[in-house]
Design a protein that fits this description.
Blueprint: E1 3-4, E2 8-16, E3 20-27, E4 33-40, H1 51-56, E5 67-72, E6 76-82, E7 87-88, H2 89-96, H3 101-119, E8 126-127, E9 136-138, E10 144-146, E11 153-154, H4 184-200, H5 204-207, H6 223-232, H7 244-252, H8 259-287, H9 291-314, H10 317-330, H11 335-347, H12 351-364, H13 372-384, H14 388-403, H15 412-425, H16 429-437, H17 445-457, H18 461-474, H19 478-496, E12 508-510, E13 515-517, E14 522-524
Parallel strand pairs: 12-14
Antiparallel strand pairs: 1-2, 2-3, 3-4, 4-6, 5-6, 7-9, 8-11, 9-10, 13-14
């Protein structure tokens, strides 16, 4: 079966199912790539083999494959679909063990948008029924693609139960094996199971519907994501989210479930009373000459801030948040507490709330807007959102303020480098180069990395690659080293459209665009 219908050349088998196989094929005339599902009619007796193409031909969504053609002979049905470039999440999960929360939340939001589209079809909503990592493809631009509609069905209000009971063990909701009709809450269940697996690395086949709190397996997860996933995987449909819009809303506002946010709301009512109480305590302390009371408070506050900062560096977000909350109980107006607490949300990938939190605080206490650290984290937040104008504005102010404060002498070059990097992203190459040239110590790994980015943006590709390789060979900073690998990989991808694999002493594998790490291995998708 090398050539099908004198039109498609079979390149390789890429999948196997109970009723047939899936192949990657190339159109002989056009050279385009397609996926061909070859279904054995005998094995498929009793099933609607045209269910998937009949559903997909009605749909038009960037995260769903298109049906291109259907062919058949006496023994087989051939379904020709879009070939979706990317990597299936089940394969990536085997490499990394578990994914970062911020990344999974972003994928979950995209999957919710797809499900909302399917469930909004009229007259009959489409129930997908087979959400699982192997059916989710992450494209090179980090967008999700949902494949395999083999067991999807139309929800019909006059039907009391499904025509057939199908699903993947571990991911299928209980009602998929009962006598009730599956609905959009069924998709919510399997999406919740999928998120559970991606965040903890615990295979649902091993759990037997016993979904223990996720932070038992991954203590770095937030309270918000644990609450959301737990609500998704309830056995009873009436205990889950009742529609995907509800789930998506909570994912977009995940921070409201964290204890720090709840506490902030609770404390707001008694804040003024607390201030009066502190004044009374201060007066009492002066009267009795107990300055030790304040010294102990200050010492404890500094210790909590330092411990919170160290936890942030090590990725222990739960402990970091706890330390910052305790510091806030001592002094909630100090920039160190505000910025430290905000950085927890930053590390969780909650950039919208991160900005909202900082801006809200600056509106209440405008003194912080002249704090270099505040402007630096604001610049980082805008940079993460790819808002280069906002990043440049705040990084520029950071440099100006830090230049006037000798406490920041050892960080001024770092601030300038980040400003230069934002200018590169905004395609203001001359300004970026001007800033880099103004940095006295030009032999710093990060500065050299920015210079390589400038070369790349200026289309000096050979110089950029040479510079990245030189940094890789000389730097002791593993983060910068991995960034250099990513940059080289992206250059090759953008210009040659092929994948490369690089092995190093610490196990680096480049296969697509995004970076994940479990402490032992780093996998980068280009």
């Amino acid at each position: 079966m090398n050539i099908l219908f004198n039109k498609y050349k079979i390149i390789k088998k890429i999948g196997q199912g109970g009723m047939g196989s899936v192949y990657l094929a190339q159109n002989i005339s056009l050279g385009t790539l397609w996926v061909i599902k070859v279904i054995n009619k005998k094995r498929g007796q009793g099933y609607d083999l045209l269910a998937e193409p009949n559903i997909l031909k009605k749909l038009n969504h960037p995260s769903l494959p298109r049906i291109i053609d259907i062919e058949q002979d006496q023994n087989y049905l051939y379904i020709i679909e879009d070939y979706i470039e990317g990597i299936a999440l089940d394969k990536e999960l085997k490499q990394v063990g578990q994914f970062a929360e911020g990344l999974v939340v972003e994928w979950a939001k995209q999957l919710c948008e797809v499900l909302i589209y399917l469930h909004s079809q009229r007259p009959n909503p489409i129930i997908y029924r087979d959400m699982k990592p192997e059916n989710i493809i992450i494209a090179p631009d980090n967008t999700v693609k949902l494949i395999d509609f083999g067991i999807a069905r139309e929800f019909k209000t006059d039907s009391l139960s499904d025509t057939s009971y199908m699903g993947t063990r571990g991911y299928a909701a209980p009602e998929q094996y009962g006598k009730s009709q599956t609905d959009e809450r069924t998709d919510i269940y399997s999406l919740g199971v999928t998120l559970y697996y991606l965040l903890t690395g615990m295979n649902p086949n091993d759990l037997l519907y016993d979904f223990r709190p996720m932070r038992i397996y991954n203590p770095h997860l937030s309270q918000g994501i644990e609450y959301i996933v737990n609500k998704c995987v309830q056995n009873r449909p009436d205990k889950r989210y009742q529609n995907v819009n509800e789930l998506l809303y909570d994912l977009k506002n995940i921070y409201v479930f964290n204890e720090s946010y709840k506490k902030q709301k609770r404390d707001k009512f008694i804040k003024n009373t607390s201030k009066v109480l502190l004044i009374c305590i201060a007066v009492g302390a002066i009267i009795f000459g107990t300055k030790t009371f304040f010294n102990q408070k200050i010492s404890k506050y500094d210790k909590l801030i330092n411990e919170g900062t160290e936890c942030l560096k090590s990725g222990n977000l739960e402990e970091a948040q706890s330390n910052f909350e305790k510091a806030g109980e001592i002094n909630s107006d100090d920039p160190a507490y505000v910025i430290g607490n905000a950085n927890v949300y930053y590390k969780q990938g909650n950039y919208d709330f991160y900005l909202e939190y900082l801006i809200d605080y600056s509106n209440k206490n405008n003194k912080i807007i002249d704090n270099p650290e505040y402007n630096f984290v604001m610049g980082n937040a805008y940079y993460k959102q790819e808002n280069w104008t906002g990043a440049i504005e705040y990084f520029s102010k950071t440099v100006d303020l830090a230049s006037q404060d000798e406490n920041y002498n050892d960080r001024i070059n770092e601030f300038k480098a980040d400003l230069a990097k934002a200018y590169v992203k905004d395609n203001q190459i001359e300004k970026a180069q001007e800033i880099i040239n103004s940095i006295p110590d030009g032999n710093d790994d990060y500065i050299n990395y920015i210079n390589c980015e400038i070369d790349e943006a200026s289309n000096n590709i050979s110089s950029a690659i040479s510079g990245y390789k030189n940094i890789i060979n000389t730097t002791k900073n593993e983060n910068i080293k991995s960034e250099c690998y990513i940059s080289i990989a992206n250059i090759y991808k953008n210009r040659n459209n092929f994948s490369i694999c690089i092995s190093t002493k610490w196990g680096l594998s480049i296969s697509r665009k995004c970076i994940y790490t479990d402490g032992r291995k780093i996998s980068i998708r280009i």
